[in-house]
Amino acid sequence: AVENGGEDDREYTIVVQEQVVEDGEVVERTELDRIDASISAGSTGTGDREITPTAESGETVRISVLLFDDEPPTEPTNENADEDAYFWVTVADDPEPGADE
User: Fold this and answer.
1) Verdict on whether the full-model pTM lies above 0.85
2) CA atoms lying within 13 Å on the CB side of residue 52
3) Residues 38, 43, 48, CA angle at the centre, nearest 5°?
4) What is the mean pLDDT of the chain?
5) How far apart are CA 90 and CA 7, in angstroms?
6) CB 3.0-4.6 Å disulfide test: which of 31, 32, 67, 97 passes with 83?
7) Residue 93 binned pLDDT confidence (cut-offs 50, 70, 90)
8) Any residues with CB less than 8 A from the CB of 69 and at least 6 apart, and which?
9) How confident is the model over 41-64, as pLDDT tens digits?
10) Contact status, residue 16 vs residue 61, Cβ threshold 8 Å
């Protein structure tokens, strides 16, 4: 969800990145999705997205969601985003068909 608490309509760009982090530093980033959103003044935009990490099975990566007011810089990062959120995932192989039955 993106909330526009301002008094004017706003244009936002959301960048979703897979990040490899070593010793607290991002050493590799891969853009997984880019979303342009127009949010009316005082409104909240919501939506669901499905993403698929590119990391190898067994690897743990950080998925960062970076919000930019209008256009992002050439190299979007958590540090230059207007807002950011992230979560960690460990990539697993696809389960065998019927494995959860």
Assistant:
1) yes
2) 3
3) 65
4) 92
5) 41
6) 67
7) confident
8) 10, 11, 12, 82
9) 999 999 999 999 999 999 999 999
10) no
